[in-house]
Structures are given as structure tokens and as C-alpha cells.
Design goal:
Blueprint: E1 21-22, H1 30-43, H2 50-61, E2 65-67, E3 70-71, E4 87-99, E5 102-111, H3 116-128, H4 131-136, H5 142-150
Parallel strand pairs: 1-4, 3-5
Antiparallel strand pairs: 2-3, 4-5
Amino acid sequence: MFFKTKPKKEEKKELLYRENIRVNCSPATKENVIRQVGQMLVDTGYVDQPYVEAMLERETSFSTFMGNGLALPHGVEAAKKDIKASGIAVMTFPEGIDWGGSQVKVVIGIAGVGEEHLQILSVIADKMLDESVCMAIPSYSVEEVYEVLMGKE
């Protein structure tokens, strides 16, 4: 008798890993920051390398600045094929950086499988609508950022 073994199901990735949070970052250009958050997504297996260029492409078509010192860079629609799992990467800039004429202190790179990116954007927007959180998060530790964004306060 032959028994079929079930293929091992790949473990579902968490949306955010602590290693994808960098706090107290030194100011850098918008392009450099997008490359850095994109590379974090690549390095932790959320996306393939071409997605980083798609994040830069998105920024040229419209700014991902959301207000309250927050930017949410993500890839263009055509780059969906380069996303392997939904995930985010975070960088905080206590001194702020220039984001096309706007001051940004928190950058969250996003990759969402299918329509999950809308869900991710909604959760982040909900957390970041609280102005006190927006004002405080640039000075938070990795653990504090993780707790706020993952709802584990």
C-alpha cells in the first residue's frame, strides 16, 4: 500500500518581525529610505528583489506621504507578482526626513498579497490616526513599535 504524505504547509509569516524595525535612523533621502525598507522586505522573504524598484516607481506616480509624519511606500500594481507573503518593514526618524516637501518621521514599507494590502493600510491608518501615537512613535524602542503596530500593547 502506498500512502500519500501531505506536503508540508509553509508556515504563515507574521506581518511584522522585530528585525524589520529600525529605530532612531539617521536622516537619508527618500529614495535611500525606500530602498532600505524594501530591502528589509526582501531579506525576510516577503518579496522578490524587483519589488523594491516597484516601490520607487510608485513614489514617482504619487507620493505615499499620508500625513501625521507617516509615509507608506509600496509597489505598483504590476509588482504584485513579486510578493511572496504580506509583510511590513518600519523605520523611524526622530529628526524627520524630507518626503517630497513633507516632514516624515515614520516610514512603513508595505507588501500585501492580493487585496491584503488594503487591510494592512487600514490597520496602520487606524493606529496612526491617533496623533499622540504619531508624535511618540519616532522615539519608541523596537519593542514599543512592534507592540503598537501588532496590537499587542
